[in-house]
Amino acid sequence: MNIQYWIMKGALRNRQQDLEKIKSMINSAEVNAKVTQDIETDDNTATLVFREIYESIRQLGDVKLWLIGYEPQNHEVSMEILKEFDIKDKVKLNSLDRLKKIRHDINYRGFRASIGQAEEILEFWNKCGMEILRILKKEIKISDINCIIIHGCPSDAEKAMNSQTRTYDKHWMPWTKQQLISKGIKVETPLMPEPWQPDYEKFKKEFEKYNINKNSVLVGHSCGCAFLVRWLGETKKNISKLILVAPWKIPDKGDELRKNFYIYPIDKTIKNRVKKIVLFTSDDEEENGKKSLRIYNKDLDGKIIELKGHGHYTLGNMKTEKFPELIYEIIN
Q: Fewer CB near the last or first residue (10 Å), C or N of the chain?
């Protein structure tokens, strides 16, 4: 659909996504259709049935437009966006223009819907509307997610201080953020203070600027995992998912700063407050990385995913910034 065309026509306005409004609209569409389906269709009720089911179909279009950041100004654009859905009986979406014309004749020319027309729109709802409804519910659920990605801790302070040369917040993170945003998911990738000399309290102060709730997905890389696990154990927060990518928990000998960051008891009750825990590792991860994974999973009891040739999940190891397996675990 040509969004710009409909904006120029005055049929669309830019609006910030309002999930509560969206949820209310889709609930209204579903309830209205259910109630209408219970009405016995005859010559006296056919027009009512047609109008009410048409309204539910239109609301599905409204929901889709609000999800992508637009407020519809008429029913035509709401019906038009429905043609974009990839459903099993996609050809049947072509009948939307016919339903639109019938609705126009009823509203503006005083026509009465026939029993056949009422049955046609009921069939459309059952075959197409219900499938679109399920797709939209999934999209709404995804939009409810807020994802926060915590980067790792570089060893080269001079390189890390330079925004042009630093890599600790790069690797797969920008690509992942872009992919999630394109799916309507809110994503934050905060820069932790002086990560080359990680300090838990400083990390905590920065991290708690963000909204963490029951729908949150927390993703950590390397030492970012150590921070997240400690923070969840300390705060007893309930979240949706915890995803640890190449988790690390073993400081180098003599490194007191990192020892204070990494060495702490893992709270075994975290798994009771997190709906899903996933740990990514690789067949060619360093030995201390593999040991770290075992330490974490002993208490977290999560799902382990081992990918081949990903090393410590840096760009140099992976040879790509794409990380589709992570996208899958965040969304599904």
A: C
